[in-house]
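User: I've been trying to design a sequence by hand for this structure and keep getting stuck. Would you show me what you'd pick, starting by listing the structure so we're on the same page?

Assistant: Good idea, let's start from the same input. This is the structure you sent:
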C-alpha cells in the first residue's frame, strides 16, 4: 500500500471505532457484531484505572503502554499528545501539569476529535485543547512544547522518519519525548505485514526495534532510553485469520516477537 492508502485506512478505521464507542459499546472499542474492529486491540493495552486524571469515557483501549509513567512531567509544562484519540492520555497529563500547564492533543480523525472535544467540555478543562492535523506535517509552531508523548500511534504513520523530524521541530530546546509504541523482532509472516486490518491493529506497520531506535537517532535526538519492553501475545483466534497450519505453529514457536515499548529521547539544548 502507498502512504495515502495507509492513511485513508487508518483514518476510516479509527473513525468507526470512535463512532462505535459512542453508541453500541460506550466502554470500549467495538463489540463482536460490529465490522469496525476485527482486531482485539486490548491485547496491546494496559490498565489506566489507577492513573490520576483517568476518564473512563476517554479510554478506548487503543494504547500499548502508559507513556506518562516515564515522561518526567512537571507542573506548568506544555505537553503535546500525538494521536490523542478521545483524550485519554491528555487528561492524565493534565492531572500532572496542573492548572498552570497546558495540554494539546493532535489527531487526524474527525470522529475522534469530536469525541475528545465532547469529553473535555464535560470536564470543563480550559487548558486542554485538541487540534486536527497529520503527524507527518503538524500544523504547529517550532520550539513550542516541553514534552511530546504518544501511545501506540507512530507505528501507524507511514513515514516514521518524517514523524520524528516533526517531533524534534515542535519541541523546545532541551525538551524531550516519551512514546509507547509497537515494534517487532525477527520477520513477521508476510500476510500479517500487508493486511490492512492488521495494519490498523498495530502490527503490520511496526518496525524492528533496532531500526526504530536508529530513526530516532538520525532525526537528531540524544540520550535515547528504552524504559519498558513487553512481549505481546496475539490470541490464536486472531492469528488464524492470517496464518494456517504449520505456518501458524512456526510463528508461535519461533523467535519472532511483537513487543510494546516505551522509549524517550531528548532534543539538544541549543
Amino acid at each position: 500500500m502507498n502512504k495515502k492508502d495507509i492513511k485513508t485506512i487508518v483514518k476510516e478505521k479509527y473513525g468507526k471505532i470512535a463512532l462505535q464507542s459512542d453508541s453500541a459499546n460506550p466502554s470500549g472499542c467495538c463489540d463482536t457484531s460490529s465490522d469496525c474492529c476485527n482486531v482485539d486491540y486490548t491485547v496491546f493495552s494496559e490498565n489506566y484505572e489507577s492513573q490520576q486524571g483517568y476518564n473512563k469515557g476517554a479510554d478506548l483501549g487503543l494504547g500499548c503502554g502508559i507513556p506518562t509513567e516515564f515522561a518526567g512531567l512537571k507542573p506548568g509544562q506544555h505537553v503535546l499528545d500525538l494521536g490523542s484519540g478521545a483524550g485519554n492520555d491528555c487528561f492524565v497529563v493534565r492531572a500532572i501539569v496542573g492548572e498552570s500547564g497546558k495540554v494539546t492533543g493532535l489527531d487526524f480523525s474527525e470522529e475522534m476529535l469530536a469525541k475528545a472535544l465532547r469529553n473535555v467540555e464535560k470536564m470543563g478543562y480550559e487548558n486542554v485543547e485538541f487540534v486536527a492535523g497529520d503527524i507527518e506535517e503538524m500544523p504547529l509552531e517550532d520550539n513550542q512544547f516541553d514534552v511530546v508523548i504518544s501511545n501506540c500511534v507512530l507505528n501507524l504513520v507511514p513515514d516514521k522518519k518524517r514523524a520524528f523530524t516533526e517531533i524534534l521541530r515542535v519541541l523546545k530546546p532541551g525538551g524531550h519525548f516519551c512514546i509507547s509504541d509497537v515494534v517487532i523482532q525477527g520477520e513477521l509472516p508476510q500476510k500479517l505485514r500487508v493486511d490492512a486490518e492488521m495494519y490498523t491493529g498495530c502490527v503490520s506497520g511496526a518496525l524492528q526495534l533496532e531500526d526504530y531506535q536508529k530513526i530516532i537517532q538520525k532525526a537528531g535526538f540524544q540520550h535515547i532510553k528504552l524504559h519498558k519492553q513487553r512481549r505481546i501475545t496475539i490470541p490464536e483466534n486472531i492469528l488464524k485469520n492470517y496464518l494456517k497450519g504449520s505456518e501458524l505453529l512456526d510463528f508461535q514457536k519461533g523467535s519472532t516477537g511483537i513487543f510494546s515499548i516505551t522509549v524517550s529521547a531528548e532534543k539538544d539544548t541549543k
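That's my pick for every position. To get oriented when you compare it with your attempt: Residues 3-22 form the longest helix (20 residues). Confidence is low (pLDDT under 50) at residues 24-38.
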